[in-house]
Amino acid sequence: MELSKQELEYPQKLLNYMDGFLISKTMFAACELGVFDLLENEGALPSNAVAERLGTSTDGMDRLLTACVGLQLLQVKQHQGEVLYSNTDLSQVYLTKASPRTLYYSMAYYSQTIYHCFAFLNDAVRSEEEMLKFMQLMNSIWNICGKDVVVAFDLSIFTHIVDLGGCTGAIAKECISAYPQSTVTIYDLPKVLEMARNHFVSPHEKRITFHEGDFFKDPIPDADLYILARIIHDWTEDKCLKLLNRVNKTCKPGSGVLLIEALLNEDRTGPVTAQLYSLNMLVQTEGKERMASEYINLLESAGFKDVQVQRTGKIYDVILGRK
Ligand code: ASE
């Protein structure tokens, strides 16, 4: 596209884009402070009256109202030496809460939610790098707790293990090191396994294999033990049951399922780490941390029996069920 000399000398469009968020935030502030609602109910008012009614500073409100005039969200008129502000037709119809055509709630959602999410836009766009950082986080805790969770029960009777949502293979490596007879398949989404192969699992590791799939829809390969490490805590009750039922269907009698999770105490007293992680699950996922009794119920509802719980004293504990 041809750019005029004028546009190149004075990049108006870029300046408008640069100020775009100042404009949004000004409109959101006026909405949320209740400027348009007040002027709708009271008619034209001077800025000090608006400030007083809305409990703001007079100087701040005067600047906000003036900016709204510039944005054509308010109009201004002089009356007996007083400067009076009132709504424009546009703000009356769309920015007052009570209007049948109101956009007030869109403005509030943008201001309170989307605006804050956009603070992380750069990271979201760099998604590959972000995913690697997340996988490194997922991997690193097993340096501390990995050994404990795989030896909490004697798993030597299970020779072929499938780690559902096995991610970087950290648990798979712990299993083959603790159980010399075992082989482990890391089951995860294709893009996760690509990262696992490129950054985490050596191709010389012949006892570890990969299986691409979505554990909610794709076939689950045969095994005598299924491990779900920090998987159940990501999901709602419905999805946990769906997943555990799928695992149960694939299991042969005698096969096992091992959940690795940060257990909450039954009496709600702690551990504080698990309580804090549960808040993080609220922020980052659909799930939550659960008590041992809740995991036992989930496993039994999905058809597992002989469910046993073993606490490790570290962050992550283990629950073993059998078909
Ligand atoms: C998940 C585990 C984690 C999903 C998102 C997550 C962790 C952080 N974000 O399955 C690891 C646990 N740590 C915390 C703070 O929750």
Give the secondary structure arrangement, pairings included.
Blueprint: H1 5-9, H2 12-33, H3 35-42, H4 47-54, H5 58-70, E1 74-79, E2 82-87, H6 89-94, H7 104-117, H8 121-125, H9 127-140, H10 142-151, E3 160-164, H11 170-178, E4 183-188, H12 190-199, E5 208-212, E6 225-229, H13 237-250, E7 256-261, H14 272-284, H15 292-301, E8 305-310, E9 317-322
Parallel strand pairs: 3-4, 3-6, 4-5, 6-7
Antiparallel strand pairs: 1-2, 7-9, 8-9
Helix pairs in contact: 2-5, 2-7, 4-5, 10-11
What does this protein look like?
It is a single chain. The protein has 323 residues and is an alpha/beta fold. It has 2 domains: 9-123, Winged helix-like DNA-binding domain superfamily/Winged helix DNA-binding domain (Arc Repressor Mutant, subunit A); 130-322, Vaccinia Virus protein VP39 (Rossmann fold, 3-Layer(aba) Sandwich). It is built from 15 helices and 9 strands. The protein has helices at 5-9, 12-33, 35-42, 47-54, 58-70, 89-94, 104-117, 121-125, 127-140, 142-151, 170-178, 190-199, 237-250, 272-284, 292-301; strands at 74-79, 82-87, 160-164, 183-188, 208-212, 225-229, 256-261, 305-310, 317-322. The protein has a 7-stranded mixed beta sheet, with helices on both faces. A hairpin with a 2-residue loop joins strand 1 and strand 2. The longest helix has 22 residues, at 12-33. The radius of gyration is 29 Å and the shape is elongated. The model has no long low-confidence stretch (mean pLDDT 96). The chain binds N-acetyl serotonin (ASE). The site of N-acetyl serotonin has 7 residues, from helix 14. N-acetyl serotonin binds next to helix 14.
